Amino acid sequence: MSSMREQSSSFDVARVVRELSELIGARARKAYQPHYEQVVLRLNRKGKPSTDLVIVRGRRVYTSNRDRPMPSKPSQFAMVLRKHLNNSRFVAVRQYGFDRVIELTFEHGGGQLKLIIELFRDGNVLLLDDEGVIIQPLTHAKYASRTLKRGVPYTPPPEAVDPRQMDRAALDELLDGSEHNLIRTLAARANFGRVYGSTVCSIAGLEEKMDSNSLDSEQRDALEQAIQSMLDELSAGAGAMMWMVDSEAMAAWNGADNEADRDTASAGISEIAPIDLSYMDAGMMVEVGSLSLAYDAVFGSYDAAAFIRREEERLVDSGEDEGERQAKLDRRATQQRAAIDRFHERAAITQELGKSIQDNWEHVESILTQFNAAVESENWQSVEDKLVDVPWIDSVDPVKRTIVAFLPDEDGEPGASITLEVASTVHQNAQRYFEEARSQKSKSKGAQAALASTEEAREKAEKRTAKDAAAGRLRGRQRSKRFWFEKHRWAMLSGGHLLIGGRDAKGNDTVVRKHLTSNDLYFHADLHGAPSCSLKLKDGLAHNQNPSEAVPEGVASLQIVQNLGEGLEDARELPESMHSEAAQVAVCWSRAWGGGGAAATAFHVRRSQVSKTTETGESLARGSFVVRGQRNWHRELSLELAIGMAVVNGVPIPVSGTPATISENFERWAKVLPGREKKDSVANRISKATGLAQDDLLSCLPPGNCSIEDHGLIQP
Length: 716
Description:
Largest sheet: 11 strands, mixed
Helix content: 25-40%
Distance between the termini: 29 Å
Radius of gyration: 37 Å
Number of domains: 3
């Protein structure tokens, strides 16, 4: 991701709002929350591809058409948005004054709902009913002037200065009343922000650091004209501008002719804006069609991988993140140490008070005797009323039959306070304090034992984490749902394209019926009972350009994509080498693997050549097909596969393919050859070394005994 500023200014918001108005009439379909920081609302316009409204908390809002992985299970906030906004029509959008607040209005069933997007501070997204009451906020928040929580009317933030409404008198008042330099005054008090404040100064030919109140009339004229020219450009202009860091970055951007190349080149973008920033180098400027396109160029790849990052950050053991587990143990140890200190302190204090009662035996006995005599002759209430004039008794508790009295200090004045049971003797009161001290000491011993147990657990966790890190093992959690291709045999070919094969007769039918389109190719080993395979033109895996730090070194971070084969209409246009790869994998999935042969044969055909019925019209049995027309043959295919270690959409899984492809894309991999070791044993050995699930490994391995040639998979 580029290092340019991430937070939108009021100028940016104004242009985005104008761009969003072009989507009025679209219908809201589904809402997603791929990451705690991000909300995505999918909008559909009749006859046009769906558009994602991407909301990144406190940072930016823009539209995008990127392929972005989404969670299969929606968050609570996403579910609320789906419940209320699904199929509603987007009817209006506005900016609150010149503030970083956007209001989207949706119409549903005769009523209206509003989605408020706040882009200042930590940001927020709030759904309001037709009366302006908050249905659900993304985050509950409380500020000095307003509260954002469910069930209360929405209150906008205090209104910010709108430079569009600022005349010359207001400008003079702003400058004269400021004790700061010009750039700071424009950025903060005039609501321009640093970037646009610098632009105003540049257009007006004024020094940023000059005192605001020192500008003469001519300079103020220039400033006023500069502000007006910027606002005119903002309201009348279209599109956006991007500035590159240098000529090399400019060349890389101009030479990028696909999304992946543009994502790589985006690292050279230093700034984007809806208007010309005159202080920037004009020779390094590139124009684009909209501010959303500029945002998507700079942040699109990073934002689209939000769900993958979330999942990678949650590489877990038994459903709990190892980092969080360690943090919990740290917090518990801290709490236990604090408790031990409190027990020791209380034990020392109560021990000392018990001793002080004994040392001041006569004083305490006198207080008890006099108090009991007073209560006997009058009553508790009467005695309590008279205690104001008694310096040695602080208070009484008639219910508990106790008094709080003072012991004399070194000067004979009231000092430490003690609680006395009036029905008990001096000795009994002192013993009560000694017993409390013993109780605190006992609790301290229990807390120390608990701390020792916690420290032991911490040590084990640290050793386990260090051992796993040294071995490069991943800790995967139980999955309730698998990726669509995991239901079948699958492999990754060069370019990331997927090859899908049936596991049995029913699976063969499914592959051909659901996963073999007119753009794909059908592959089959020249052996009876071999799986039917589909080489996918569009579906595949691509390297995640923004992996989480949670992914261990040497483990590939991949994401599922559906936009491969850009510019191609048919899988026949893919390189012949890829066809050979697919054929090689297809024969490895067949009984040729266990036949002991050194090579095998396979063929591929178009989808239209594969049929479920014979020429006589008879329907074939489950898993069987008729192939008509000319076949494209692949001969002398090697019986060898490879397995690489990866995190796909945040999930640790093995990826199989040919040795050439796997070795090129994975640092940790192993070659799999026909051998004598049972498949279960091979999977178990790899699982122990990597942390990958044994069932996932069994699904990737060929159908028969194997041998392993390790290239960092087992021994990193």
